[in-house]
Specification:
heterodimer; A: 588 residues; 4 domains; 4-stranded antiparallel β-sheet; B: 4-stranded antiparallel β-sheet
Chain lengths: 588, 295
């Protein structure tokens, strides 16, 4: 029956769903495992943490599943376009193109949606049966499901666009892979190319503080996970429903679907004859694929010949650019051959086009390597700054007064001046700290800078900077502000006992009573006022105490933050802690 | 019924159709003829709404076909290569077709399945090309269309089955006034069934007429002409064996006969041309190597 009023044709959808049963079974089995078996495991084992982390894992592993599923669904639903017989058959049916497109699109979507929904509902049932922390787990469960669904929607839209854009299966898969998997590779390599300009700017840096981490980036900086991470507001360890993420996904997916539909309406049936929907798209597609494959080939070469691909920062930029351009050369002509289906691509015109590509890359690299736009050197002028937030180790607070703003600007300038020394002294493991300075300007904009420094550096320049930072954070005002921030909303404090005070039967930590907590805070403040306080940064010298401060979260959950405490012997807090632990001698 | 006006289509560097026009009257059986690459299938794909024209238009009873489900629901199309879903059987295809064509006649379907002797539960993947054609015929005719569009319809069928298929089509024409547009290389078969013919060459419609009109406008003459032939006589082909000349001439037989009589031939005989000969001599006139498609 043809539903004339709707965009969908029931016959086509039912037929597609019946045809796609292998995918339905496959996805159903996979999702049942993820959404039902893991909750069952939790229900049986009462392992709240494993349940929570299982969802974390799903979030980070979901792209792999959804990327494959999206290609599978779009491939199934739109494969008729790539075969002359089926393409002509479908287009000769009494359906308009809108109905045909929408029906195929919906059937592909349902293949993922139905098993997901079934599994999610089953998971919900099991969580409800669990009877404890139901609301928290349900929220986690559905948030996770919404995330995966949104992610699938975007991937599916990309897959449909690839199917619709290209008239050959090979072209479609290549385009899809390029768009999904290889784009991060390009981003990674481009981040290496723009490395001179990424100093201090996290937004241009891929990976968490790892400027050059291609392999990690590949998996961790999958674009949509990154968008999700950006949108997910983490307050006291609590997730908020990623509405912004959902909005972005729906918007991106919608735009891609709209674009696919426009192409579908315009030139779909001719695919079988022409190989690509819009011949004029050959040029941009060729450039795009050249860039992606050129970067990918460069990465493979780096993997093969460079001992430590995780850190390619020691590679000379000139070498990197040269290798990339040399790798792009065969890729460019290969793409031309593939797209135009001819071997006669070695023409003067194509050489010129490749020249344009080279020129673009060189200009791009030159602009960034010389910091043409002054991004790295920028320290906002004091009169334009509304407030500054500074994060360093466990300290994280805002200042608004001119004196403090100027002090932080001065520190910022020192970071910029000590750039070479800091980069030389970076250690991936050990005493590496990441100070972050965020300016809120009077015009409402923010400028955020993020650095890495080794506090144990022997380099005099870094050492001086480190001392300056210590000096800034050791003022009475700073210490009092820190203690207030640290103790805000506190519900629980655990004091970790140093190893040499433990017996084989003693606890590793001691939870303070409410009275002890108050006493400790007062003692700390008293010490701070007397200039006898050093609850401060990481220091390898001496035995430190750890304070684990628990704060209540929205989900009835307690999140813990660890603070390192290096007590001074003469301090009041020191005496108090010693008393609490029942230690008569020195803590060290 | 079907009107194609100045249809043009270009595929990259190939001009597949160049201002091609044709008109298929209601209730007629229209044969679309032409050598390989002439553009027959491209025209048909425009008529069936598969391709979008670069220029010109395709109308069914005045309504454009492209992206128009109402117009497309009026015809059934049997392409040269038959499509079927993976691992499906005739019954599955029937259910799908029935869902799309509201006028689908299930009783007729059962009757035709019996007539052709096909197993409706057998996987279509195991069917030969001829059997697939039969299956497509069953589905197309059971859809009760007003127009049947057939691209090389009996290709792959054995002679008995060809006859059966044609008789079925003609029965539909006779009983329900179905309009048939058929493209084929098999001129002899078209000659038996078509009442209108269009000849295409290099994307253009060379000529289109009713078959009777066409046969009346071209004449084959054998004779001995000692005084030679008039210079302005429209000769399409001329050959001789000894003194006996064979002429293919364009024009009305009576007028040609009169003009030839004026040359006082020793002997002269007018002979009818079959469709194949018309096809060959028309295309021969536009420098087409007709020998390569002699059937």
């Amino acid at each position: 029956m043809t539903l004339r009023a709707s965009c969908f044709n029931r016959t086509v959808i039912c037929k597609n769903l019946a045809r796609l049963w292998p995918a339905l079974v496959l996805f159903g089995a996979g999702m049942l495992y993820l959404w039902v078996l893991i909750p069952i495991k939790d229900v049986v084992g009462e392992a709240y943490n494993s349940y929570y982390y299982a969802y974390e894992n799903i979030i980070y592993q979901a792209p792999i599943m959804t990327v494959a599923a999206a290609l599978c669904c779009a491939g199934y639903a739109f494969d008729f376009l790539h075969k002359k017989k089926s393409c002509h058959y479908f287009h000769s049916l009494p359906l308009n193109r809108k109905t045909l497109f929408c029906s195929a699109f919906l059937s592909g979507l349902l293949v993922f949606l139905l098993p997901l929904l079934f599994s999610a509902l089953s998971g919900t049932l099991l969580i409800t049966l669990r009877m404890t922390r139901v609301l928290f787990l349900l929220r986690l469960h559905w948030e996770c499901m919404a995330y995966i669904l949104c992610q699938f929607l975007v991937f599916y839209a990309i897959a449909v666009l690839s199917m619709v854009l290209c008239g050959r299966n090979l072209h479609s898969i290549l385009t899809y892979l390029c768009l999904n998997f290889l784009v991060p590779v390009v981003c990674t390599l481009l981040s290496a190319l723009v490395a001179p300009c990424t100093y201090g700017i996290e937004e241009l840096v891929l990976g968490d503080g790892e400027r050059f981490a291609p392999i990690l980036v590949w998996f961790e900086v999958e674009p949509f996970t990154r968008i999700y991470d950006s949108c997910r507001v983490s307050t006291s360890g609590v997730w908020k429903l990623p509405w912004i993420y959902t909005g972005i996904c729906v918007l991106c997916g919608g735009l891609l679907v709209w674009l696919s539909y426009r192409i579908f309406r315009r030139a779909m049936a001719e695919h079988a004859e022409q190989g690509i929907a819009i011949p004029s798209f050959h040029g941009p597609l060729s450039y795009f694929l050249t860039l992606v494959l050129g970067c990918a080939l460069t990465m493979i070469l780096l993997l093969t010949f460079h001992s430590n691909v995780i850190d390619i920062s020691d590679l000379n930029l000139t070498v990197l650019v040269t290798v990339m351009l040399l790798c792009s050369l065969p890729c460019f002509f290969l793409m031309e051959m593939l797209l135009k289906r001819t071997k006669k691509v070695f023409t003067l015109r194509n050489v010129g086009r490749f020249g344009c590509y080279v020129a673009f890359i060189l200009i791009f690299v030159l602009c960034f390597s010389t910091d043409l736009f002054g991004i790295v050197r920028r320290v906002p002028e004091a009169e334009k700054v509304e407030s500054v937030q500074i994060s360093f180790a466990t300290r994280d607070y805002s200042v608004e007064d001119a004196e403090n703003i100027e002090a932080i600007r001065s520190l910022h300038q020192q970071f910029i001046d000590a750039r070479d020394a800091l980069e030389e002294e970076e250690e991936p493991f050990g005493a590496l700290f990441n100070p972050r300075i965020t300016y809120t300007l009077k015009n409402g904009r923010t400028v955020e800078r993020y650095y890495a420094m080794n506090l144990n550096s022997k380099n005099p320049e870094v050492k001086a900077l480190s001392e300056n930072i210590r000096a800034y954070f050791s003022t009475t005002e700073s210490n009092l502000r820190y203690i207030d921030e640290m103790m805000k909303d506190m519900v629980n404090v655990e004091l970790y006992i140093p190893y040499h005070f433990r017996t084989p039967f003693s606890e590793s930590s001691k939870t303070l009573t409410a009275k002890q907590r108050i006493s400790l805070v007062e003692a700390m403040k008293s010490d701070a006022r007397a200039g006898n306080f050093s609850l401060f940064l990481y220091s390898p010298e001496g035995e430190a105490l750890e304070l684990r401060i628990g704060k209540i979260s929205k989900y009835d959950d307690i999140g813990y933050w660890t603070h390192i405490y290096i007590p001074k012997e003469s301090s009041t807090a020191y005496a108090l802690v010693r008393g609490i632990l029942g230690v008569s001698g020195s803590l060290e | 019924m079907i009107r194609v006006e100045n249809l043009s289509k270009r595929f990259e560097k190939v001009q597949a159709l160049d201002a091609c026009s044709l008109h298929v009257p209601k209730g007629s059986v229209y044969g679309l003829l032409g050598p390989n690459g002439a553009g027959k299938s491209t025209v048909i794909r425009h008529i069936t709404g598969i391709y979008q024209a670069d220029a010109g238009q395709v109308l069914i009873d005045g309504a454009p076909v492209y992206d128009n489900p109402a117009a497309k629901a009026r015809f059934a199309y049997i392409p040269d290569e038959i499509f079927h879903f993976h691992s499906s059987n005739l019954r599955d295809m029937m259910k799908f077709t029935r869902g799309l064509y509201p006028g689908f006649d299930s009783a007729l379907y059962e009757e035709l399945v019996q007539l052709f002797g096909l197993d409706p539960k057998a996987n279509l993947r195991g069917f030969s090309k001829g059997m697939l054609k039969q299956a497509a015929f069953i589905l197309a005719i059971s859809s009760r269309p007003e127009i049947l569009i057939l691209d090389e319809p009996v290709d792959g069928l054995d002679p008995v089955m060809r006859r059966q298929v044609w008789s079925l089509i003609l029965r539909e024409v006779a009983q329900r006034q179905v309009t048939v547009l058929v493209s084929s290389h098999n001129l002899r078969e078209l000659e038996d069934v078509c009442d209108h013919v269009g000849i295409m060459h290099k994307g253009k419609m060379l000529l289109q007429r009713s078959l009777s009109e066409m046969q009346e406008n071209i004449v084959k003459v054998q004779g001995v002409f000692p005084e030679g032939l008039p210079h302005d006589l429209p000769v399409l082909h001329r050959s001789n064996v000894g003194k006996i000349e064979t002429l293919i001439l364009r024009g009305e037989p009576k007028i040609i006969e009169q003009r030839l009589e004026e040359t006082k031939p020793v002997f002269m005989e007018l002979m009818p041309l079959n469709l194949e000969e018309i096809f060959i001599y028309e295309l021969g006139g536009v420098n087409y190597d007709f020998k390569s498609i002699l059937l």
